[in-house]
């Protein structure tokens, strides 16, 4: 939340909300940049959440206010059916109403207040948390026939088609279905999923590098385009259809060779990670996390020096099993798998070491 005074729903809209809802951010343990190629992912929900209070209106107007709007200004308004891009954070709300209508769901106008402690630009899917929280509130308020998977798909559509961020489905599925103690092993082509408990001897840390990112612009789009080009060059609909040992991958021209190599090997790493988790094999699981980061840094080229520094500092700590960047890249956070009883001390030690090495302030987001 920003530093402006939090306003109540009653003060903003002259009455009490009818519905209260929320949804979590997510951290991806392993399986990065695979979801838009039909691959495997392994995210968990995080404790930080986006919360929504909502009340139906008698007209077609939507009036929204966010405690996290940097301007701290008055509520924003748009009309259902008259949504227009280019309104900052309100685009995520408009995207949801457009996508819901396109999916055949009938909405009326509403007032809504949003508040979140999911960090923006940290690779923890603040946008998906907002979309899923809003759709949960709309589902209750307007009695929408919408299960949790269908809800996640509408949330993804809102971001890809209206906001213009060509994200895969992992973030919204993790926000809709994820838990904080179990990873969501998700096949993003079939939407079949399994919850896999995190080994009890381990704990996850999430440390924000302080370098923010955006999926709507920049090299994230380039990487997705390159992945599609690689699939086309290999004659498959999706890189999911290529095995990690297929010799044709190494015959691709650069940079398609490296992009395809990351995705096909990352899919295999996710499957191996699930096996390691079920066996409580933390050493193998940690090694897979480090290998994933190296692939994201060298083959997919989506890491940045500050994030690499955090991972290398973690590699040198005796109580860390593994670490990697998490999220789309070009900034954001690092997820670490650590010995449970060492987590509190380790988090502070790494944040201080990172500050000395880079001059940046790292925030420990999950410990």
Mean pLDDT value: 94
Helix proportion range: 25-40%
Integer count of domains? 2
Spans of 5+ residues with little confidence (pLDDT < 50)?
A: none
Class by alpha and beta content: alpha+beta
In total, how many beta strands? 11
Report the β-strand fraction as a percent range: 15-25%
What is the rounded distance between the termini? 20 Å
Order of helices and strands: HEEEEHEHHHEEEHHHHEEHE
Per CATH, the class of the largest domain reads: Alpha Beta
How large, in whole angstroms, is the Cα Rg?
21 Å
Question: How is this structure best described in words?
Answer:
The chain has 367 residues and is α+β, with helices and mostly antiparallel strands. The protein has 2 domains: 9-187, Ribosomal Protein S5, domain 2 (2-Layer Sandwich), CATH 3.30.230.10; 200-366, GHMP kinase, C-terminal domain (Alpha-Beta Plaits), CATH 3.30.70. Helix content is 38%, strand content 22%. It contains 10 helices and 11 strands. The protein has helices spanning 9-13, 90-102, 126-141, 148-163, 170-177, 219-233, 256-278, 282-298, 305-315, 343-358, and strands at residues 19-30, 40-56, 61-66, 76-79, 110-116, 182-187, 193-197, 202-208, 320-326, 333-339, 363-366. The strands form 2 sheets. Strands 1, 2, 3, 4, 5, 6 and 7 form a 7-stranded mixed sheet that branches. Helix 2 packs across helix 4, helix 3 (126-141) crosses helix 5 and helix 4 packs antiparallel against helix 5 (170-177). It is globular and about 60 Å long. It starts with 8 loop residues before the first helix and ends with a strand.
